[in-house]
Predict the structure.
Amino acid sequence: MVLIFVCLLLPCFVLSSEHNLTIDEDFEIEKQLKLLNKPAIKTIVENEDIFDCVDINKQPAFDHPSLKDHQIQLRPSSLPVGLFDNDMIKSSSRIKSMEVGLHESCPSGTVPIKRVEKEQLIGMRSSFKQYKIRPSSSSNVNDDASTTQRWATIHTPYKPYHQFWYYGASGLMGIYGFPGMQDTQFSSSGFWIANDDDLGHINHIVVGWAVDPKYNGDKNSRLMAGWTCDDFKSTGCMNNACPGFVQVSKDTPLGIAISPVSTYNGTQRDIELFVFRDPTTLNWWFLCGPDKKLVGYWPNDLFTTLAQYGTRLEFGGTAEYIGNSVFPPMGSGHFPYEGYSKSCLFQKVKYIDGDSRSDDLPLLEGTPRSDSPCYKAGDFTGSDNANNYFYFGGPGGIDC
């Protein structure tokens, strides 16, 4: 009897040992998987990813205690003025603005949620970076001596020297792939909207694309978005790793792989992303692609200071590693001085003002910042062909 009992327990001990988990931790992971993966009305498989079409009113977002009585909003009450202006990039026919989405849509009344596998959830637990994709000006960055996150960005002036408020932002950024990235590395490009009126509870939203083998289980470049109301101390997450983001699109889920990507000195492929605050509901909407497809929104109830407005914006890239590794490439993996089709280009940098109008971010409002010799952000400049723009990125390495 004792032998049988030991044999029955053995698989649990083997699993726990392999991932440095106790049996209680393993049980907790199984419970979290049931919470994250809602019952599917239909399942869509693309590129080895599994997307469950779940009832829009029963998606993971509504597990958040602040959203128990939330009334879902299917469309913004209004769109920022100028958002759909015909301002297509004329600089080169080699630029391809990517339309991101599944080849097959979920049925009406359902939304696609990327299924979380057990290995991924274990990766989330062991990878601290997914909870700290913070802007470079975040207060905790300088307080945390152990951080291995690095940035190359353009940022707006900091308060209290600047009293300008932001109600959204957008940008068109190059998207690249890093097939040689290690499982202990992470690289992302995008932009942040933040409010740091309360330094103890810094609020921000981040959107962009990321390569994260530990979190995703592969080296694909993927659509990513995240939020926090306390600088990731105890709230917020990336994509759907915790409740909060309300998905409304039937075919553009967070975490979807983006392909094809740019090639060095070849065809450049870009992704255009938009975030703005609904002037009526105060929810923060996320739009994607040249057609400004509605992906979903972060309800106003998630935030404290950002429930009102953003106090600063930041555009560019971040890179990080864990364990005994080295810093990965950022952007295209090449420095800004290499220029077009070689370094990563971030253009059409815009903000939303208090009148819900989309305008180019003034050149004087964007200051380059980098905190490592392995990554750089070029000058924020402009031309008649490409609106405002800058290059950013670098190769990474051991001396960052």
About this structure: Residues 1-36 form one domain. Confidence is low (pLDDT under 50) at residues 1-18, 88-93, 139-146. The two ends are 58 Å apart (CA to CA).
